[in-house]
Amino acid sequence: MEYKVNIQESLEAAFLEYGASVAQERSIADIRDGLKIGLRQGLYSQFYNKLTSKYKFQKAQKSVAAAMSLCYVHGDSSMYKNFIRAAKPWSFRYPLEETQGSCGTQCGPDTESAARYVEMRSNELADYFFAGIKKNAVDEWYDNYDDTEKIPAVLPSIGFWNIINGCTGIAVGMATSCPQFNLKEVNAAIIRLIKNPNASFNELYCVPDFCCGGYILNPAETRASIEAGQGKSIRLRAKIEYNSKENCLIATELPYGVFVDTIIGQIAKAVEENEDYGIDRVIDHTKQFADIRIYLSKNANPAIVEKRLYKDTSLESFFAVHMLMLDHGRFPRIFGWKDALQAYIDHIRECKRRELEYDFNKLKARNHILDGLLTAIADIDETIHIIKSSASSAAAKAALMRHYDIDEDQAKAILDIKLARLAHLEALELESERKQNQLEIDRLSDILSHQDKLDEILISILQEVADKFGDERRTKILTITEEPEEEIEEKEINVNIAGDKLRINPKKVAGQNISTTNLGTLVCVSSAGLLYKISMRDVEEGKTYSVSQLTKAADTIVGIYDLSNINLNKYWVFITKNGLLKKSPVKEYNYVGRQGTKMLKLKDDDAVIAVYLLSGDKDMISVHTSDKFYAHYSGQEIPESGKAAMGVKAINLGANQTIIKAQLNPTGLKITGRAVKGVKE
Which of 78-87, 292-301, 456-465 bottoms out in mean pLDDT, i.e. has the lowest? Predict the structure, then answer.
């Protein structure tokens, strides 16, 4: 049989169906209970299998197995991830699971123990999801994967709205990103809206409150985004405090979704790229929540380093606001804050109404039975006579229905009653029960007839949950005025170096004098052939410093040059005590890399005694031995070599002789021929 189809229409229809399926059955939360389907199925499986706070802890594998056997259609590892994430206090603002065993730390997203090592159950707060579910509070149920059980499409969630835990998810062609909120504040806003449907956004607004704490830096933009349900991202910043005793910055309360390992990796990269960053070492003291100790270099400015960290790492981060939720569990829609609150209120009103109607109908049905029993007991002799004279129970039931004008249910209840209950006191108890039931029926009827009385019940539940589980805000507001960075005026300075001492002097004095600027960098070469740097930003005018302390070099500094002048030259020339001469292009070296970069290869018994910059091939280098021999070379005579090479022999040294001095002679110095060993100085 041959079928003709339009391939474009077929693909469009299939893709649309797939996209809707991903949104509804995996990635997007329902606005009514604030849950995605995976966690909802997991929580219901725990409720169904008595793995809740009312029962003892069981292995996490049991919760996973319960979900897998009842309704969860994905893998066991993803179900465990759903459960364990709901137990992590740095993932959920108000965890829904409680565990015995490790649920991990804030170091990384996958630091929890395996399911076989963890005991788990849903906690007391999660119980509020199911209030009234056995009393027909929700009417939307669907078949599980093998059509053996019914699963709720949404939970009643009366008193507890999971929007406070936020959510993120990516569907097909759409994504959701809802921040976390404070339970007390959200329930208070819901109560205000129940009491006054015309309440303004200003009366209802709740500032996001993330489980990790920290600071919100753009409260005005955040407010606008929450009002509309989308807009500019929330700018979050970690809490950093300076410990002057240990000269370290202590970073805690990371932005939501940022882990310790990420921060440490970013700091390591920043320090590797710039050894003048101002950080000496980083130690992780994290137990459950983040505790990062960032130890500063001796002369580092804590305020400057802190500012760099916010710029270069996720210690300052962003959380997008895109409150896309499923309307009635079906239709993806952006919810503004007030609309989201109203959708939840409409849901719990309907759920509570259905729950009360269930109680109302059950009590009415019970009183209907009691009416029949009391009628029969009031005429007990005739009742017994009718039953005894009937040929069968079916005949007796029909006879009772005719005689007392009662229905089948009432007649069956009369036939089922025990003889012991026909006593006078039992009749009084049945009458008392009937009266109590009628009072409750009248009360429920009054509530169901008046919306405000139904709302009073909801308000009392919302207040109860807020009082029982609410806490104080963790995320604080810190308004940052965006100002351009203060520009430091660049000015020329004179740096004087005498031995190991470095000082900025207005005038040139004895020793080496280097002309640079207050924003410049000095490049230093050590006797081990290693490259170090000194940032002039870290050097205060009028203060004397130790070069070895500024560079943290373990060996002697033999040459210091201004970084801005290096590229004006063509070559580095190194002279070693064993008589080696090495010339390498300046472009081969990385002057912003880590401290202690190797500039040349040396034997164990050798060391650099001098290093120079050559501007051209005509510059002259002279070397002097310990027995007063010397040799002169022009830059052109010295062969060029790479930075990994050792260099060439500059002069033949006798036994126990070394190079003790080298000198850069100005271009154009009149020297005829080339001096060799044996020519006295």
Answer: 292-301
Token reading at 17: 């169906």
Tokens of 177: 């990103």
- Residue appearing with tokens 């649920």: 103
Q: List 71's β-bridge partners, or say none.
A: none
d(CA 109, CA 412) in angstroms, rounded, equals 61
Q: What average pLDDT does the structure give for the chain?
A: 87
Overall pTM surpassing 0.90 (yes/no): no
> 300 φ, ψ to 5°?
-75, 145
Higher pLDDT, 237 or 614: 237
- Strand runs labelled E in 409-529: 476-477, 492-498, 501-504, 512-517, 521-526
Q: Residue 174 — very low, low, confident or very high, per pLDDT cuts 50/70/90?
A: confident
Please list the active-site residues: 117
Q: In which band, very low, low, confident or very high, does the pLDDT at 676 lie, cut at 50, 70 and 90?
A: very low
For residues 107 and 259, is the Cβ–Cβ distance under 8 A? yes
Report the amino acid identity of residue 126: A
CA distance 588 to 597: 12
Tokens representing 283 are 């130690």
Short-list 33, 31, 535, CA closest to 331: 31
Q: From start to end of 374-520, where are the E strands? A: 476-477, 492-498, 501-504, 512-517
Q: Quote the DSSP letter at residue 505.
A: -
Q: Provide the residue type at 631 as one letter.
A: A
Residue that has been written with the tokens 């499986």 in this structure: 45
Cα–Cα nearest to 106, from 252, 233, 210:
252
- DSSP string of 78-118, one letter each residue: HHHHHHHHTT-TTT-SS-SEEEES----TT-TT-SPPGGG-
* 412-431 residue pLDDT tens: 998 988 877 777 667 888 89
Do the strands 234-237 and 316-319 form a parallel or antiparallel pair, or are they unpaired?
Answer: antiparallel
What does DSSP say about strands 476-477 and 215-216: parallel, antiparallel, or unpaired? parallel
CA distances 182 to 209, 213, 296, 470, 553, Å, are 5, 11, 36, 8, 52
The string of DSSP codes covering 119-135 is EEEE-TGGGGGGTTGGG
Tell me if residue 140 falls in helix, strand or coil.
coil
Q: Phi and psi for 237 in degrees, rounded to 5?
A: -135, 140
Q: Is the pLDDT of residue 485 over 80?
A: no
The predicted-structure confidence for 582-600, as pLDDT tens digits, reads as follows 888 888 887 766 778 888 8
Secondary element (H or E) of residue 310: helix 302-312
CA-CA distance, 478 to 651, in Å (whole number)? 68
| C-alpha torsion 368→371→376→378, nearest 10 | 180
Tokens of 11: 């693909």
User: Which of 454, 430, 433, 434 minimizes the C-alpha distance to 443?
Assistant: 454
Q: What is the mean pLDDT of residues 566-578?
A: 86
- Report how far residue 54's alpha carbon sits from residue 124's, in angstroms, rounded to the nearest whole number: 8
Query: Per-residue confidence at 323, pLDDT binned at 50, 70, 90?
Result: very high
In angstroms, the CA 614 to CA 621 distance is 9
Evaluate if residue 603 carries a pLDDT over 70: yes
Cα separations (Å) of 203 from 165, 198, 261, 349, 503? 21, 10, 40, 21, 61
Residue 63 in this model has a pLDDT that exceeds 70: yes
